[in-house]
């Protein structure tokens, strides 16, 4: 079915002929849609039809009935003249649908009627497919029949066939020659009438039985004269008749009978028996002779000299020829005294038999019972009693051969292994010798003898598929001489290679198992491998192991040398080999790159690195090295080919020659020029750090920084900025003169408008090879191309640039980062010292305020206490109590102020709206009102935040009256909130110092309330400013203090 489906899937090339182009286009479009096999070609005229038929294969021609001046019938008749088998279809209209193809012409294969409004294209497609499939099937059948007939004519058997009426339908040439007739003359004749001699025979009976039963028959039949020969008949009936295959077997039967008779006579004779004629042709040979030869049993007609020519030594063959000739000459002697004994001639011959060289005692005598000159030859195998003698001689020769192989120093490892295997094969009389490399279960052929056989060097096998698995498992010599008797008939090596005999020994290289040396043969041996042979194989294993070990050592040495050479050439240092006279013998790529001279320029020449003024230094180095000492990391200066003087580290080592004398030295030089420069820069930066540590101001630090960048690091275009958290920008401090020349006045940097601000905000060091590739640069027309930007923590920025792209390397970045680190630390120190000074100033102010503000109520209390004690009036005691309350309020405010300055640690999420409402409850606000809007939740200290709101509410009530209205709500411009009242407000002239200690514009105030508010705000990372309220009162705005362009951590809203 698969083949049929494949054939039906083949494309069908349809040639559609119609002078109606529009309808032809419909056919061309629709037919492939109906059946995807169709490939439609259009033609409008008869000429186009034949052009298409000549240009491409066509499977079917479909034509309209009318083609202008011609008809479809005319076209079909023309096509039939050139190809009578090409399917053709005539398309007619409805008026002719009753006409038959014959009425249109005998050449039309089919016709299809096409109606204007009927779907007839599917009918046309079906007709095309049916006709083409039938045409192709017919063509294939004809081709098959033709091939079958040609096959029968070439057959060696005689073949003929008859139909069911026994009429002869076919007779091949072989059969015609055998029966002596003309095949064409007997076609159609009745078999029994044409060959009456077979009528009534068993052959007729079996033919008729086969025809009746439908079962094939096979038998041998003797045909009586006039044929007089034996045939082997195979007859095959079918529905159409009977086909007979006949092979003459007369000669085969005669040979079979003769062989059976000879076998019966001599089947028990172990001696080799021949009967020869005077031409040395074999008239008879018994089975023992065939076994000795190792060939087919039938030797009759062969010439014995051809058989023994290359299997018998020349001397033995000459004596044998002479003996046969003399014996033949005696066949003419008749009567008594013609023979001297049972045999006339007795000689010993060595013969290369199938199972190896054998020695035969050969006896010859003439045969006189016929008229022919024939000789009886009988040979008896006498090999066994000479085998020991030959084996000893072979072992002696083998050891001498092994000695010669191992003593030949010119042999490579592969050649030596092959010769050792040759010696082993010859000594053991086995066909194949192999040295294997075994790793795990992988068996690889390392060497093989003979070369060019079924196994080659590099072939791989599974260890389990080889006989060597037993050697590996036991780690000793293993052998057998008959695979079947040894129980290995199912082993893969026997099934695949038919190896009958085998002996192998393990190989060990450097104490590790390597593989095996083994020998095998497809022939079995008569005797088992003796102790001498097993010892010999062990000896070969030791010799092979030693050779493989030497090869591995050589390979490791070569690999080491290759790796060393690769390492020397790939090393970035300069490596050279110099003799005692200063001549260069090796100059690596590193030396070429480092000094400028190529290897071709210096090898064989005086070392170019020895200037005239350094000959004394070279002599010291030479004596030190050639005395056996090494030089390790000595700093030297050398001049390159271009004249540049650079710093190097020199190391040397002596090199010994084969006789142990030091004749050369290896010198390695590492360029440390940049390292030396780096060390100088680091020392200079260390000095700069010391200067920065004692600088007294930010301006001094900035000047030291840019000066060090220019003078120490050669970074001439360097500027420094300080972050101003109030203005939220980077303010320029100073710059080098080169930077001033490029920038003019160094601009301040604001958030998001430059690469510098991006680096400061990210807190990351940024290095740009070409800032023109970045859109966020500050000035699109800047001459600066390369930049290094290093943030100084939260305090500022250090920047250096160059007008050339790709100007800075990693070392420049690292050194600039080190400088920036020192500058940043100095700025932090200066900032802390400034804060400490401010703190000390505040403490002094605080002490003054405390001494003043506490002294006043204390003096009041003391005065009124004295009056109260003198007068005893309660009013004075109340005034003392009021003064004490005033003192208590001052103490509480001082404590709050001290706590408020501490940064918030371990803050929690706090809702400002709930804190504001809670604080309102703790303040005496009389008729004042509070309005709290939607406030953010922040991370802070709830207690101190409550104090902040309490002080603000209390300040509003104290300064704006009992009915003041207070509003707390979020700022419209982002993070933050405000506290606003509608009271009298704070004049602008008072706003600058309103948050300082002790400043109060109310007689009842302590002067600490708003300073406490400012301290708590700073502790939470806020800034606080005061401005006018919407209704004329005071408005306090709290916003997160910005660090690196973002709100401070403490002030972040979590909502």
Automatic annotation (TrEMBL):
One of its GO terms (molecular function) is phosphorelay sensor kinase activity. Residues 144-188, 258-331, 560-629 form the PAS domain. Residues 543-570 form a coiled coil. GO terms for biological process: regulation of DNA-templated transcription. It catalyses: ATP + protein L-histidine = ADP + protein N-phospho-L-histidine. The keyword Coiled coil applies. It comes from the Archaea. Signal peptide: none annotated. Residues 849-1044 form the Histidine kinase domain. Residues 632-684 form the PAC domain. Keywords: Coiled coil, Kinase, Transferase, Two-component regulatory system. It is an enzyme of class 2 (transferase). Its EC number is 2.7.13.3. Residues 13-129 form the Response regulatory domain. This is histidine kinase.
């Amino acid at each position: 079915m698969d083949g049929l489906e494949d054939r039906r899937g083949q494309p069908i090339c349809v040639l559609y002929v119609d002078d109606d182009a529009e309808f032809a286009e419909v056919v061309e479009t629709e037919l492939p849609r109906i059946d995807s096999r169709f490939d439609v070609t259009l033609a409008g005229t008869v000429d186009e039809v034949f052009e298409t038929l000549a240009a491409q294969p066509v499977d079917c021609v479909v034509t309209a009935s009318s083609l202008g001046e011609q008809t479809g019938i005319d076209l079909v008749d023309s096509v039939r003249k050139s190809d009578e088998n090409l399917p053709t279809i005539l398309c007619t209209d409805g008026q002719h649908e009753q006409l038959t193809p014959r009425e249109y012409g005998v050449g039309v294969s089919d016709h299809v009627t096409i109606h204007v409004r009927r779907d007839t294209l599917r009918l046309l497609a079906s007709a095309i497919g049916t006709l083409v499939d039938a045409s192709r099937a017919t063509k294939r059948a004809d081709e098959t029949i033709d091939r079958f007939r040609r096959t029968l004519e070439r057959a060696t058997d005689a073949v003929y066939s008859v139909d069911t009426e026994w009429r002869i339908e076919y007779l091949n040439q072989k059969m015609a020659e055998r029966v002596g007739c003309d095949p064409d003359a007997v076609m159609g004749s009745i078999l029994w009438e044409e060959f009456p001699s077979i009528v009534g025979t068993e052959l007729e009976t079996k033919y008729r039985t086969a025809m009746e039963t439908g079962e094939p028959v096979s038998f041998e039949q003797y045909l009586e004269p006039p044929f007089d020969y034996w045939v082997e008949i195979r007859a095959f009936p079918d529905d159409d008749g009977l086909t007979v295959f006949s092979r003459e077997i007369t000669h085969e039967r005669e040979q079979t009978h003769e062989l059976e008779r000879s076998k019966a006579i001599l089947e028990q004779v172990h001696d080799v028996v021949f009967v020869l004629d005077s031409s040395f042709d074999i008239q008879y040979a018994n089975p023992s002779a065939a076994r000795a030869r190792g060939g087919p049993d039938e030797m009759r007609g062969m010439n014995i000299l051809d058989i023994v020519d290359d299997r018998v030594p020349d001397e033995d063959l000459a004596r044998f020829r002479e003996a046969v000739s003399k014996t033949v000459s005696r066949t003419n002697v008749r009567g008594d005294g013609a023979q001297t004994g049972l045999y006339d001639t007795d000689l010993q011959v060595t013969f290369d038999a199938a199972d190896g060289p054998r020695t035969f005692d050969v006896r010859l005598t003439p045969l006189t019972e016929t008229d022919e000159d024939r000789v009886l030859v009988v040979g008896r195998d006498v090999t066994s009693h000479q085998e020991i003698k030959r084996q000893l001689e072979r072992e002696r020769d083998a050891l001498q051969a092994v000695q010669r192989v191992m003593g030949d120093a010119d042999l490579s490892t592969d050649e030596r292994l092959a010769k050792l295997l040759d010696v082993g094969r010859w000594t053991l009389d086995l066909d194949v010798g192999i040295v294997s490399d075994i790793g795990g279960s992988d068996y690889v052929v390392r060497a093989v003898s003979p070369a060019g056989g079924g196994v080659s060097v590099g072939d791989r096998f599974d260890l389990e598929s080889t006989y060597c698995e037993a050697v590996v498992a036991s780690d000793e010599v293993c052998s057998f001489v008959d695979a079947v008797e040894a129980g290995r008939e199912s082993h893969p090596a026997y099934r695949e290679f038919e190896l009958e005999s085998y002996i192998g020994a393990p190989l060990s290289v450097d104490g590790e198992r390597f593989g095996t040396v083994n020998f095998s043969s497809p022939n079995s041996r008569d005797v088992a491998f003796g102790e001498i042979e097993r010892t010999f194989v062990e000896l070969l294993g030791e010799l092979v192991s030693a050779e493989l070990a030497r090869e591995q050592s050589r390979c490791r040495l070569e690999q080491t040398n290759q790796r060393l050479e690769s390492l020397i050439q790939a090393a970035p240092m300069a490596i050279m080999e110099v003799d005692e006279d200063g001549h260069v013998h090796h100059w690596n790529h590193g030396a070429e790159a480092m000094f400028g001279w190529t290897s071709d320029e210096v090898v064989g020449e005086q070392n170019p690195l020895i200037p005239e003024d350094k000959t004394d230094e070279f002599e010291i180095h030479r004596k030190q090295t050639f005395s056996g000492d090494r030089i390790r990391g000595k700093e030297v200066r050398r001049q390159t080919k271009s004249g540049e003087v650079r710093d190097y580290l020199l190391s040397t080592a002596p090199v010994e020659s084969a006789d142990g004398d030091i004749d050369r030295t290896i010198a390695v030089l590492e360029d440390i020029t940049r390292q030396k420069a780096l060390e100088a820069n680091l020392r200079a930066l260390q000095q700069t750090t010391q200067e920065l540590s004692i600088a007294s101001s930010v301006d001094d630090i900035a000047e030291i920084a840019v000066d060090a960048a220019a003078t120490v690091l050669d970074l001439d275009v360097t500027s420094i900025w300080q972050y101003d958290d109030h203005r939220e920008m980077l303010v320029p401090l100073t710059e080098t003169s080169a930077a001033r020349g490029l920038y003019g006045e160094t601009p301040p940097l604001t958030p998001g408008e430059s690469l510098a601000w991006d680096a400061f905000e990210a807190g990351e060091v940024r290095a740009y090879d070409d800032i023109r590739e970045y859109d966020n640069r500050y000035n699109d027309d800047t001459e600066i191309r390369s930049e290094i930007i290093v943030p100084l923590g939260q305090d500022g920025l250090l920047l250096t640039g160059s007008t050339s792209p790709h100007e800075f390397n990693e070392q420049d970045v690292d050194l600039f980062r080190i400088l920036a680190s020192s500058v940043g630390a100095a700025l932090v120190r200066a900032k802390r010292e400034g804060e400490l000074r401010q703190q000390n100033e505040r403490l002094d102010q605080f002490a003054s305020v405390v001494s003043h503000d506490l002294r006043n109520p204390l003096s009041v209390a003391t005065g009124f206490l004295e009056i109260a004690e003198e007068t005893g009036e309660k009013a004075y005691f109340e005034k003392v109590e009021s003064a004490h309350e005033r003192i208590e309020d001052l103490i509480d405010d001082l404590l709050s102020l001290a706590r408020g300055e501490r940064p918030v640690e371990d803050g929690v999420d706090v809702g400002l709206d709930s804190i504001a409402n809670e604080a309102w409850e703790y303040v005496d606000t009389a008729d004042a009102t509070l309005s709290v809007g939607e406030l953010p939740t922040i991370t802070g200290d709830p207690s101190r935040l409550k104090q902040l709101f309490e002080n603000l509410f209390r300040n509003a009530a104290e300064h704006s009256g009992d009915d003041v209205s207070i509003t707390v709500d979020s700022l419209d411009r982002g993070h933050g909130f405000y506290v606003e009242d509608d009271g009298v407000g704070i004049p602008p002239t008072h706003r600058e110092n309103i948050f300082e200690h002790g400043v109060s514009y109310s007689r009842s105030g302590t002067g600490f309330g708003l300073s406490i508010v400012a301290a708590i705000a700073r502790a939470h990372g806020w800034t606080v400013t005061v401005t006018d309220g919407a209704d004329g009162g005071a408005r306090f705005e709290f916003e997160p203090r910005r660090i690196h362009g973002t709100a401070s951590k403490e002030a972040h809203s979590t909502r």
